[in-house]
Structure formats: C-alpha cells, structure tokens
Amino acid sequence: MDYQYEEIAAAAKQLKEKLAGLEDKRSILRAPELGSLYAQIKNLPAEIRASFGQEVNKLKNELEELVRESTQPKIELPLIDVTAPFDVNVPTDKKPQLLPAENSSRHPLMVERDKIIEIFARMGLTAVESRQIDDDYHMFTALNFPEGHPARDDYDTFTTEEGLFAPAHTSTMQNRVLKKYKSNLEKDKAIAVIIPDRVFRNEDLDARHEHTFYQVEGVYVDKGIHAGHLVATIRAWLSSYYEKEMKIKTQPYYFPFTEPSFEFAASCPFCEQKGCNVCSYSGWIELGGCGMIHPHVLREAGIDSSKYTGFAWGFGIERLVMLKYNIEDIRHFESANLKFLRQFS
Ligand code: DAH
User: Fold this and answer.
1) What angle do CA 212, 248, 245 make, to 5 degrees?
2) Based on the domain organization, do 145 and 237 belong to the same domain?
3) How many whole angstroms from 255 Cα to the centroid of ligand 1?
4) What is the 3-state secondary structure (H, E, C) of 3-17?
C-alpha cells in the first residue's frame, strides 16, 4: 500500500518488519509508532489534519488485515476447475460415468419452445429473452401493482436478501419490450413480441406445480387493437401448435396489468370435448391468463394509451407440452430422468 506522508510510509515499513518477528501478532496494533502517529493528528494544521488522519487509519487497517492473515490457519486447498463437469477432487473411480456425446439429445422443453418461437415468427412476432433475476419495479410496479397492493401476494416469489426477485412470471419483461419497441408505433408498425423464458415460484410441488418452469408471454400493441385480435391470435397459434383446429374459451379473471382480464381455455386435444380424465370430463383445458394491456402499463412505458391499445398473454409452456404428449407430471421436466428424456430423443 502507498502512503503519501513520508512519516507514515516510514512507520509502515518499520511496523511491517517488526510484525514479521512478533510472536503475538496482535500486539503490533498497540505499537508506540502507531500510537505516536495518532497522537500527532490533533496538533497538525487544519488543512492536512483530515488527510493525515485518514492515512493513519489506512495504515491501521492494513496492519489489522496482515494480523488477520497471519493468524488464520493456512489451509492449502487444491485448485478447482470450475469448468469441469464434476468435482475434480472426486477420485477417478467415484466420478460419474458420462454418457458418450453421441447419445445426447435436446431437452423436450427446448425443442417445444423452439416450435412455439417458430410459429410466432411466422405470425410476425419477435422472441425476446427474459432474465433470471429482476427488481421490484419490473415484477410489480410497472405492471400496475402499487406498493402494498394485495395482488402482490398472489405471486409466491423467491427474493434475495437485497430485495431482488427471481421473476415469478415473464410479464416482468412487458415494460422493457414496450419501451424497446415503442418506436415501431411511430413508424406505423405494431409492437409484436413474445418472451419465452424461465420463471420461478415458491410453490408447494405436485404433479401440476414446479418451482422452476417456462412461460411464453406475448405483447401486441397497435392502433385499434381489441379483444377479438387477442382471441384470434391465440387460437391461430394453438391450432398450429397442436396441428388441429382448436376451440377456445375465455372467462373473466383479474390481473392488475390487464383490463379486461381473462382466463384462457382451449378444447381438450385428447377427447374432442367428449370428456376424458385429462380435462376432468369438462372438455376444456385451462392454459393461462391474458387480457387487454391496462392503460397504466402502456403509459408507464411512455405509450399514449388514448392512441394505442394492445393485448398480452402468459401461458405455461410445460402445460402446453404436457397436453401435447399426455405427460402426467410436470416434475419430469426438471428431473433429468433419462427414462423420461429418452422418449423424446
Ligand atoms: N403473468 C401472469 C401469471 O403468470 C399471466 C398473464 C396474465 C400474463 C395476463 C399476461 C396477461 O401477459 O396479460 O400469472
């Protein structure tokens, strides 16, 4: 460490040499050389008093650090190769058997996610990534959940000690994509985006609930957009994804960021609405939430809500895939169970 005051630099050198020969390392902090530097401070001219004092403190901190280092038992740990696929300290015969690379395959969720992205790309919607950690503003405030709003409690969010969130829905990206693409509107082009990404919830786990899953969010804004466009867009997408004409149904619901808000159900792709155990004999399967984007959400992103309207939706991707392949338990996806995964390779 460098010291600008010669006297302090000299004392630092002396004290460090002294420290090397001391048995009781802590006693260096009571050394008269340090004490006399402190004693001088009050007699110094005002203009240098503060900086001299700070430098004496710096020396004391440096000595404390050296004492700490020298009194800590030295443990020689082997270096860790953080890029290794397993702990390098594990003896060779205990290392996991890796699969030959040619046996690998893509995870079914990623394959299905790409199919969804492709369908929307053909419909003119661009895919944008979300993130794995987000803030209160994007999780709630920008989505018209004011502070203290009871609807915040509907989301079982994981939070960090600093108050950040593992996003509990892909709607956290709405404000960002609205801002990013709002210049489209000035060019008479729509904002047409999907966000297919991971979300996290502090859920009680069962066959239909996972702590980590994927959603596909959609955001569409332009002049004259109404709920008919919402229904038609989702129906066209689902029919393409399930490769059959789907009937769809909306029923009123509540989300702070849409008005009106709907829950969205599609005709059961298994029984053609005759009733089966997948749809609990109702003929309908709930797929997610959607609605017309609340004017507050548009305004928060700087979009004139008297001129433009839009719709948004958020559907669970696992749910869609489970329906497509008749998968009975959502927990298979994150399980890394090869028996499950190999069925799709
Ligand atoms: N974010 C909601 C959830 O995970 C789902 C949702 C509802 C997304 C309505 C939307 C929407 O974009 O308009 O519970």
Assistant:
1) 100
2) yes
3) 7
4) CCCHHHHHHHHHHHH
Q: Assess whether 153 and 208 both reside in one domain.
A: yes
Instruction: Name 220's bridge partners.
Output: 192, 311
Based on the domain organization, do 60 and 145 belong to the same domain?
A: no
> Domains in the chain: how many in total?
2
Q: Which atom of ligand 1 is nearest to the CA of 219?
A: 12
**Residue 49, in any domain of the structure:** yes
Looking at the structure, tell me whether residues 32 and 141 fall in a common domain. no
- Distances from the Cα of 227 to the Cα of 126, 173, 204, 223, angstroms: 21, 21, 34, 13
Distance 138 CA to ligand 1 centre (A): 13
Instruction: Give the range of the structural domain holding residue 19, as residue numbers without chain letter.
Output: 6-71
Task: Say if CB 234 and CB 313 are below 8 A apart.
Answer: yes
Number of the ligand 1 atom closest to the C-alpha atom of 293? 13
Single residue among 71, 96, 128 that ends a domain in this structure: 71
Residue 275 in any domain: the answer is: yes
Looking at the structure, tell me whether residues 259 and 328 fall in a common domain. Answer: yes
Residue 323: inside a domain, yes or no?
yes
The closest-lying atom of ligand 1 relative to the alpha carbon of residue 199 is 4
- What average pLDDT does this structure show over 59-71? 91
Tell the residue nearest (CA) to atom 3 of ligand 1: 169
Ligand 1, atom 7, lies closest to the CA of: 289
Contact 244, 324 (CB under 8 A): no
Pick from 63, 54, 68, 4: nearest CA to 33: 63
pLDDT score at 246: 87
Tell me the pLDDT tens digit for each residue of 197-247: 999 999 889 888 899 999 999 999 999 999 999 999 999 999 999 999 888
Regarding the beta carbon of 314 and ligand 1, being less than 6 Å apart is answered yes
pLDDT value at residue 99: 67
Task: Give me the chain's average pLDDT, please.
Answer: 92
Q: Whose CA is nearest to atom 2 of ligand 1?
A: 314
Q: Does residue 250 share a domain with residue 124?
A: yes
- My answer on whether 120 and 62 are in the same domain is no
Assess if residue 25 is contained within a domain: yes
Among the atoms of ligand 1, which is closest to the Cα of residue 261? 9
Centroid of ligand 1 to alpha carbon of 194 (angstroms):
12
